[in-house]
Recover the amino acids of this structure.
């Protein structure tokens, strides 16, 4: 696997973020994409050692397109120069939550987990309600020393505890959240040694798993809204 080929292509796309360049370099895109899918495939096998629910996935079904939706953005550049994949028991949908990889040159790559999407109000309510009833379990997970060494719970949040929830609840701070996710930044040079990167990524995803499992218990009956 040649991760440098991925970084080189994305760096070039970042500098030449236009449709003409993109279409003139379809061969480079295909080569970089092939390497990324191979990396995702290897990662699936590593994750499968502690979470066999992901093993059935095909890498190509877990990746996201480079094309950006620019309708509501000031930035009209047509492409997001990043390769992304979400590995979960049911593919790349945001729920159930799984293991997220983004490769973006310039030290912007990261490993992630948890619920990134805050537009699904049902999902937000389900997690809040689960925290209300299972707050101690949540605290035990996020205050585990190994977890705390690498992760802090992030997410968009309200200023106040939402209506209908106890402002004095022990986990009131987390009831303000609309999404609950984890990120661990990866430096470009850490991607050079593929074997070392896979070992590190799998190790971090293993530490992340109890957090994902907690959210997935909360989201057990979630239905994706019909398009």
């Amino acid at each position: 696997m040649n991760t440098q080929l991925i970084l080189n292509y994305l760096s070039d796309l970042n500098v030449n973020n236009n449709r003409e360049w993109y279409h003139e370099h379809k061969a480079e895109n295909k080569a970089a994409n092939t390497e990324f899918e191979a990396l995702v495939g290897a990662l699936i096998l590593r994750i499968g050692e502690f979470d066999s629910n992901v093993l059935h996935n095909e890498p190509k079904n877990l990746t996201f397109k480079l094309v950006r939706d620019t309708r509501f953005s000031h930035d009209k550049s047509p492409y997001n120069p990043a390769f992304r994949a979400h590995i979960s028991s049911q593919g790349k949908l945001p729920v159930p939550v799984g293991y997220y990889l983004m490769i973006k040159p310039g030290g912007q790559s990261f490993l992630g987990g948890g619920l990134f999407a805050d537009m699904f109000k049902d999902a937000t309510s389900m997690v809040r309600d689960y925290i209300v009833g299972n707050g101690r379990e949540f605290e035990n997970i996020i205050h585990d020393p190994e977890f705390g060494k690498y992760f802090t719970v992030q997410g968009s949040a309200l200023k106040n505890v939402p209506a209908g929830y106890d402002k004095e609840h022990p986990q009131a701070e987390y009831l303000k959240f609309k999404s609950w996710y984890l990120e661990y930044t990866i430096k470009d040079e850490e991607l050079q040694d593929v074997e070392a990167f896979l070992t590190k990524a799998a190790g971090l995803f293993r530490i992340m798993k109890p957090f994902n499992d907690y959210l997935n218990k909360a989201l057990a009956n979630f239905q994706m809204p019909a398009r």
Notes: The mean pLDDT is 95. DSSP finds eight helices and four strands in the chain. The longest strand covers residues 109-115.
